[in-house]
Amino acid sequence: MSTSPAAISVSGLTHTFEGEHTVAALRDVTLEVPRGAFASLIGRSGCGKSTLLRVLAGLVTPTSGEARIDGKAVGGRLGHAAYMPQQDTLLPWRRAMGNAVLALELQGMPRDECERLARPLLERFGLGEFVRAWPSELSGGMRQRLALARTFLARGPLILDEPFGALDALTRQEMQLWLQEVWSAAPVEERRAVLLVTHDIDEALLLSDVVHVMSDRPGRIVARIEVPLARPRTIADVTTGEFAALKAAVLRALGRGTG
Amino acid sequence: MRLSGQVLRSHGPAIGLLAALVLAWELVVRALEVPVYLVPAPTRIARAAYEVRAVLPAHVRTTLTEALAGLAVAAVSGVALAALMASVPFLRRGLYPLLVLSQNVPLVVIAPLIVIWFGFGILPKVLVVAVVGFFPIAVNTVEGLLAADGGMIDLVRSMGGGRWQVLRLVRLPAALPAFFSGLKISATYAVLGAVIGEWVGASSGLGLFITRAQASFRTDRVFVAVLIIAGISIALFALAELLARVVMPWRYTRASTE
Predict the structure, then answer these.
(1) Which residues of B touch A103 (CB under 8 A)?
(2) What is the pLDDT of residues A209-227, one digit of tens each?
(3) Domain-located, residue B125
(4) ipTM score of the complex?
(5) Phi then psi dihedrals of residue B39, to 5 deg
(6) Is A83–B158 a contact, with Cβ atoms under 8 angstroms apart?
(7) What is the least distance, in Å, from the CA of B174 to any CA of chain A?
(8) Do A136 and B256 touch (CB under 8 A)?
(9) Do A203 and A164 contact (CB within 8 A), yes or no?
(10) pTM
């Protein structure tokens, strides 16, 4: 393998929220997402998955351990990972274009240059006709695509916190296949690394090269499951025996991580 | 036609009720032969308005100028203090009680003091309006700034945005609806503030007009002034509402493309 550092590497990460109630969120978490790889982190609600992403985003400084992005320690530095929070958090007072270019604008890029960069991406995301729309005028799926476009335009590996959690089951499946498509549209060496947090096993298996299974709080990694299914994957893959076997493995790992 | 139908549906009841009240007022005053210096009939008020039509515009202009200038001062200083209080917890804890306390000093006490300090020109009136309008704007805006969505703030921070950018991109726009709620309250009381300022001492304005009318027992003219004050207050309120629509277009588009 190449000697270039992993897109995301986390080692011995432990985090405890101090306060009225001390909560141990993460315990000794170690994982790595190579460049251009799609990884998932799966676990029950409240297991600390989101906290891990917030550490990578630089929003939370961990109690101990280390998180690195592209080989550089995060250590509370902001603006190095493309973070998509659980809610779409579109700014209601900015039109679709204004939301999409937020990260570029914050990097100090002039607005017309931002828009030139963002426009083809928005076209590809099916939002070409809606660049002037307010977020409140968009459907749930479109809002999610816009939030993803905004994330794609930010720097660093994509770290996505349950991006499709708020959507209905059918839209969610559509969006999963769509995400695979836009992610794999780039040539292999230019693909963005992704760390997707989810509690949907099908979603994790359908999209990922590797699924990391997290235990209940305090979260630690209890299994690392490779997904050798060929790409592009289709919804038919979900019903194959191979898929079922992988699903069983994830379920077993989740079971081990309970209690 | 559809628009006028809509206006009629939403404002029809208020207009109808008002017309009935005015009619009843006229009939009662005539039937009981109430002296004009106690309660003038609506027709008598209309005649008084016609009599003073030459002098009124100047008074209205003075009062309106004071109200608008005072509102502007209230808005700028209210937002500035709100931004300060929202970003510095120490100042918030320190200033909030003082702010509430300041609202407990009656206006009729403050107004003469302001006139003593700042003379008889337009400035003291503007300041009285500002003192009245400042509080609702500051308090509403502070709450609005603090109520900004934590997820949006985290998002901007995760993209490398600092304190100022969080304020500009998230907190300030998020506080706009609250600011406009405050502004509408202040706009409603602005004319009142100006009139009280004029009542203490002025050379022009509706407050002066009322004082003179009262001194000569021209109750009908007092009513004329009261009606004009009500009209200006409603107009200022509508102006604040219009401003809100211009500044926050996203609040007034709700049609989903689904």
Answers:
(1) 159-160
(2) 999 999 888 888 998 999 9
(3) yes
(4) 0.88
(5) -135, 110
(6) yes
(7) 8
(8) yes
(9) yes
(10) 0.82
